[in-house]
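Tokenised fold entry reproduced for absentees:

. . .
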Amino acid sequence: MISDELISTEMNINRTEILNRICYTEVVYHRINKKLESNYSRSEIENLIFNIINETQEMFFQRIGKNNYVTNTERNIKIIINTNTYRIITVDRMTKQLFVRSYELGTIKTSSLIIHNSSLIT
């Protein structure tokens, strides 16, 4: 059984606070460019992250342990943010997935049927 302390839904996640407090390390800019196979400037990365968090539906915000996960299905991207420091840890490119809400556990589960789509940003 999954502990409620480890996984919570969007109810405990404040989007405005994340947007006001997100921060970056020097290493994370390089990591984001590597993971997204891009060459964005710092300001482009910061704008991208801000916009993705801002436009993502709250049902796709999830807290697991000490991290917040923001999963944007439109852009096929997941952002991992430290809950305490609001520091961006990494960004992962995703394939399109069908998300099924499980209210009993308060988690988001993904199906095993994947629609492959590598389009990401524009």
